Amino acid sequence: IGNSERKLALSNIAVAYVAFLIGTFCGLIQVFMRNDRLELPAWLDYYQVLTAHGVLLALIYTTFFIYGFLITGMSKSLGSFGPKVRLWSWVGFFITLIGTTWATVEIISGRASVLYTFYAPLKASGWFYVALALLIVGTWVMSFALIGHYVQWRRKNKGVLSPLFAYMTMATFALWIISCLGVVGAVLFQYIPWAFGFVDTINVELSRSLFWYFGHPLVYFWLLPAYMAWYLVIPKLVGTKVFSDSLARLSFLLFILFSIPVGFHHQLGEPGVTDFWKFLQVTLTFMVVIPTLMTAFSLFAVFETSGRQKGAKGLFGWVGKLPWKDIRFTSLFIAMLFFIPGGAGGIINASFQLNEFIHNTLWVVGHFHITVGAPVAMTFMGITFWLIPYLTGRTLTGTTKKLAFVQIASWSIGMLLMSTAQHVLGLLGAPRRTQYSHYNDNPTVLGWFDGFFSNTATIAIGGTILFFSAMLLIVIVLRLWFLEPRSAGQDMYAEFPLAESDTSATPKWLENWWIWIGIAIALIIIAYAIPITHLIQDAPPGSKGFINW
Ligand code: HAS
């Protein structure tokens, strides 16, 4: 890929890992505070640290890493960027960086302790919301630059299906751009006027609904790049092709359709939205499970095909033929394993009645650590092991490879301990988003901390192992960036492993974006138009309307 794309991708990855470093440190502070083992200095409080932890890891690490990965893959699969694409990608990167830095300064200085969901009536300084708006605009500029690259390629290759990596990138951007409309609406028309004092009140329920219109697809914005690695990198590593090109494309399309009109499943316990609309969105939530099951089917098919090609016999003989010693593979495989309980937990969350039981408990914290914190984060770690060498021209050698195994193993153990304890404590009723660990010594509550997995000490042990693993990852990143030897020619660790995908049987209509975006918009209107109208019309006096003046 071109030099400019290399620098651009590396710049994104560098910001991602700076955010990762600070964010994981905040995580360490977090687990000890909940365990009542740490007193913070007066200028720092629990919510400041929790906000920094959530924003830096869930929003900033993921976003910058995703762009680093997608920029590299788009350049690899469609060719070098033209001057305009290059220029706008850099412009987008700098806008996102300014937004990010500004938002982080607001959080660290204590002016935005509103958590990553920034629910009203918690109020941050107006500049925090301006910074968030910049962050999103920056990602849009980068996305549109890459969409421009794709459009140019399609003009030059009329009637040809685009390479699978580029297609999946476009689906991810479609999902991202449509979903951001909700949060952009809330930030521009509700939070900014309210936080700067132009209006006195805010329509709280509307702001939450607009947030979750964005917030749920946000989790698939994290997940889809991981799926890209599962669909395209894994078959290459196990020595075979993508199982089915059309299945892969269809599963990404289904995410565009079903990941957005489902935000109410985060608000099942809230007033203001009638059960009918909640039920409709819960039903659509179950539809979004289908593309994941398709992905699991496709990956098992890849594992089995490659195993059989290597002579595996019997029902599970192929397991022994998988390349376990290749850390690029092992890290992704463990990431996928975590998604089995992670996704099962998601189904529990989305079940209307069961949600009452787990909502606002530590269970939800356990859930998102074994979805975004394990399947997504560990896939990004697995990608890091070859993406940085690919971009810096270095390679992954003996010591760093061993460190990478230790890092993945320790992340898995830490996450297993921490998230299991979070799930169990959540079932026992321990609330989320609170610094109080002993709940005023309430006798019923003290019983929560008896067992090994119903104990905040286990969370703290898991969190400490995770922090150790995170620091190891930073060491690996630095070694891959600056210290590892230059790769000599054909080096497997300095390659972008992209599997072949046979498009001969793929129907062309799968790449007619207007049809799919049109259906997605229709579904969004069906699921949201009436309840949002009600939220505006029925708002309590003093908070009527969108902007409330
Ligand atoms: Fe979730 C809350 C429902 C998936 C992240 N979720 C959250 C929050 C986050 C989050 C961050 O319905 C907290 C938000 C907050 O701060 O309040 N979630 C779901 C459902 C799914 C789901 C139905 N979530 C994710 C993913 C996330 C993520 C993915 C991040 C990346 N979630 C909810 C709900 C809430 C929620 C409610 C609100 C709770 C509340 O009340 O507050 C589905 O997408 C899950 C589908 C997945 C499966 C698993 C099948 C998997 C298999 C294995 C996969 C293996 C493959 C490879 C593909 C059904 C079968 C095969 C190879 C191997 C080696 C196995």
UniProtKB/TrEMBL annotation:
Keywords: Electron transport, Heme, Iron, Membrane, Metal-binding, Respiratory chain, Transmembrane, Transmembrane helix, Transport. It is a multi-pass membrane protein. It comes from the Bacteria. Its main location: membrane. InterPro entries: Cyt_c_oxase-like_su1_dom (IPR023616), Cyt_c_oxase-like_su1_sf (IPR036927), Cyt_C_Oxase_1 (IPR000883), Cyt_c_Oxase_su1_BS (IPR023615). One of its GO terms (cellular component) is membrane. The chain crosses the membrane at residues 11-33, 53-75, 87-108, 128-152, 164-192, 212-234, 246-264, 284-303, 329-348, 368-391, 403-425, 459-482, 513-536. PROSITE patterns: COX1 (PS50855), COX1_CUB (PS00077). It is found in: Membrane. It holds the Pfam family COX1. One of its GO terms (molecular function) is heme binding. Residues 1-549 form the Cytochrome oxidase subunit I profile domain. GO terms for biological process: aerobic respiration. Belongs to the heme-copper respiratory oxidase family. This is Cytochrome c oxidase subunit 1. It comes from Edaphobacillus lindanitolerans.
